[in-house]
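Researcher: Next sequence.
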Amino acid sequence: MIKKGEWVRIEKTILEPEERAPQIPDDTKKLPMVMWAKGFLQEDAEIGDTVVVVTRTGRCETGTLIEANPNYELNYGEFLPELLKISYMVREELFGDQDEAGL
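Model: Next structure:
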């Protein structure tokens, strides 16, 4: 049981696949458009229940409870060595020869 007032994450389907815009890529058209929101749970509930949360900005959202006390997960993808080389190239262009790595 997750108690009222806990920080949670909900999921809500915004558009079903058949409601999606016709110009989006075919693989995207097959999936619903889904929203996730974090907020304070407004009544005791279990994972999978339909609940109401109040977000940090005071907005009320309704959706399926999927997680209590969610972590912040940021990921900018896999490391790309090319981007590191480009950063040295830009730095050299802007500030002169400062390439300490010998690239």
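Model: The chain has a mean pLDDT of 91. Helices lie at 26-29, 81-95.
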